[in-house]
Design a protein that fits this description.
Structural class: mainly beta
Number of helices: 2
Radius of gyration: 17 Å
Largest sheet: 8 strands, antiparallel
Helix content: under 10%
Strand content: 35-45%
CATH superfamily: Galactose-binding domain-like
Number of strands: 15
Number of domains: 1
Length: 282
């Protein structure tokens, strides 16, 4: 179920459509469908379609990341969206299909966090942009979709129970009540001289059912991609498929979108930046 948003937090329709259209026409720099291996990831388990009752999103295989495993990808290598490392920022989009099983019998308020990080121009960690996801059952009568079995998703710059909350009303939470594959997509672009990051969830028909716009760092202090990371996972496993990083082949992403969230909370940011980060070669 898509939750209506106040006008103050909606993206301009035309600008948002331009972001999605640009991402759709982008050239792939990294792609992993887990059909033959798990290269580019550390270290989920590749499984055939139907494992644990989950059909692959495409092809005959997908992967599973286990509870607490901390599996991650570098999207083919740090900074590869810039054509080298280190390097100046150029727009790019990451995408990962994640299977949300509403009927899996998870305990109320079971959560996972999937984050994308970006580097500064020197190739060092700058900031995380996180999907905060929780499962809530029909006995739970708070938040969107109250009284039904559903996932609730919001977005922030923090992960973990002590730093983020999927139901946070200030983060425009969205509920998902249908089991299936969903695409978790993050588009990084120049928003009028500042970094903009549109985090979107698409259903199997490629319809956008939730979106958030974060950012604020001066674009001159932003470099290329870092990791995609399951920073927290309380589920027995999460099925994933079709990981990719793409960059526009010609026209850059639009640079005049309004920010949904501006600035960063110093306390939350400091607590998050103390967390372990995946380590991998550029």
């Amino acid at each position: 179920m898509f939750r209506a948003r106040p006008l103050s937090v909606l993206l301009a329709a035309g600008a948002f459509a331009a972001v999605i259209a640009s991402a759709a026409s982008a050239a792939p720099l990294y792609s992993q469908g887990f059909e033959t291996d798990t290269s580019g990831w550390s270290a989920p388990t590749r499984v055939p379609s139907g494992t644990d009752g989950v059909p692959s999103a495409s092809g005959s295989y997908h992967a599973e990341t286990a509870q607490g495993a901390g599996d991650y990808t570098t999207w083919g290598g740090y900074n590869n969206s810039t054509g080298g490392s280190p390097g100046a920022f150029q727009p790019y989009t990451t995408s990962l299909d994640i299977y949300l099983n509403v009927g899996a019998g998870a305990a109320n308020d079971t959560r996972f966090d999937f984050t994308n990080a970006i580097n500064n121009p020197s190739g060092n960690f700058l900031r995380d942009f996180v999907f905060n996801v929780g499962f809530y059952d029909s006995a739970d009568n708070t938040g969107p979709g109250a009284g039904t079995d559903r996932f609730i998703v919001s977005a922030s710059n923090n992960a973990g129970r002590g730093n983020a909350y999927p139901k946070d009303p200030g983060r425009n939470p969205t509920s998902i009540g249908t089991t299936g594959w969903y695409t978790f997509q993050e588009a990084f672009f120049d928003n009028g001289g500042a970094l903009g990051v549109t985090l979107s969830i698409l259903d199997s028909a490629d319809a956008t059912i939730g979106s958030w716009l974060l950012g604020g760092d001066p674009i001159g202090g932003v470099g290329g991609n870092r990791y995609g990371w399951f920073a927290a996972n309380e589920f027995r496993f999460i099925a994933i498929d079709n990981a990719s990083l793409t960059a526009p082949s010609a026209t850059p992403l639009p640079s005049a979108l309004p920010l949904f969230v501006t600035g960063f909370g110093a306390i939350g940011l400091l607590s998050w930046r103390r967390k372990r980060k995946p380590v991998a070669a550029a």
